[in-house]
Amino acid sequence: MAFFKLAKKKKDESLDLQIPPPEVQAPAQSSPIEQILMMKQQGYTNNQIVQTLQSQGYNTNQIYDAINQAGLSGGIKAAEPPEDMETGMPEYGQSYEQPYQQPFQSFQTPKELETPVSIDEERIQEVAEAIIDEKWDEMTKDIKKVIEWKEKSEDRIAKLEQQIIDMRISMDTLTKSIMSKITAYDQNIVDVGVEVKAMEKVFQKVLPNLTESVNKLDRMTKGYKEPVKK
After folding, report:
1. pLDDT tens for residues 154-193?
2. Cα distance between residue 223 and residue 146, in whole Å
3. DSSP state, 87?
4. Which of 21, 69, 140, 217: CA 20 to 30 A from 107?
5. How many CB atoms lie under 10 A from the CB of residue 60?
6. Helix or strand run (H / E) with residue 134
7. Are 195 and 203 contacting, i.e. CB atoms less than 8 angstroms apart?
8. How many Å apart are CA 39 and CA 58, to the nearest integer?
């Protein structure tokens, strides 16, 4: 009786293993990329993400395809199917193993999607800081050049202003000297005019007497006669 029950149990188990389980229908959404990104931000590993999505009803192809797409759009490393998944689920029977082997044999990611470059935030920050430092140094050098040019320009302007002031002082001094010379010349002319007028008055007084004396002398000369020679 026990042997009959054991044989019946083995027969039932073999029948159960040969019947493939019904396919689990995926949720209504097309791809769980947003969930993968959120779980990545929370620190989930790829294996944890796969297990979580499988528990939600997603098949393996959808999960790894979504992980690869999330790796391109969100900067996370794409996941590769584990080795035990490539050979399918544990063997429960030949008819159950074949449907799970075929999808992994036909699913091949392009070369550019197989190993997408993972973006390191620290590396990005270092590169950004290096670029900022380089640009800051260039801007500092340009500002120093502008400051030097400004100082030189101010010095030149100050020198020009001083030269203009000195020129004005020289012009004022020269003008004053010329005016003093002109004033002295005018004074000399006035003095000469006064002297000429004084001499004119003197001549007016002396000239009649002098003329009279000359006339007398002329008459005396005419009245004098030389003696006749014998």
Report:
1. 999 999 999 999 999 999 999 999 999 999 888 888 888 8
2. 110
3. T
4. 21
5. 19
6. helix 121-223
7. no
8. 15
Backbone φ and ψ for 19, nearest 5 degrees, come out as -90, 115
pLDDT tens for 94-134 read 444 444 443 444 444 444 444 444 557 888 888 899 999 99
The token pair at 99 is 């449907």
Cα–Cα separations (whole angstroms), residue 63 to 21, 49, 54, 75, 78: 20, 8, 8, 17, 11
CA distance 77 to 46: 9
DSSP sequence for 18-64: HSPPPPPPPPSSS--HHHHHHHHHTT--HHHHHHHHHHTT--HHHHH
Q: In this structure, are residues 124 and 130 in contact, taking their beta carbons and an 8 Å threshold?
A: no
Q: What are phi and psi of 133, to 5 degrees?
A: -60, -40
Position 101: which residue type?
Q
Question: For residues 180 and 186, what is the distance between their CA atoms, to the nearest angstrom?
Answer: 10
> DSSP letters of 146-169?
HHHHHHHHHHHHHHHHHHHHHHHH
Query: Which residue ranges make up each domain of the chain?
Result: 16-118
As a residue count, the chain comes to 230
Distance CA 159, CA 155 (A): 6
* Contact by Cβ (8 Å): 32, 65: no
Global pTM value: 0.31
40 in Cβ contact with 76 (< 8 Å): yes
